Amino acid sequence: MLAFYSQTKRCNAEVAAAADVVDRTLTWLIVEHQQMLQDAKRELKRSKRKDYYKLLGLKKEATDDEIRKAYRKHALQHHPGQLPKPADLSVSYVFDAP
Question: Under a CB-based contact definition with an 8 Å cutoff, are residues 48 and 29 in contact?
Answer without folding.
Answer: no
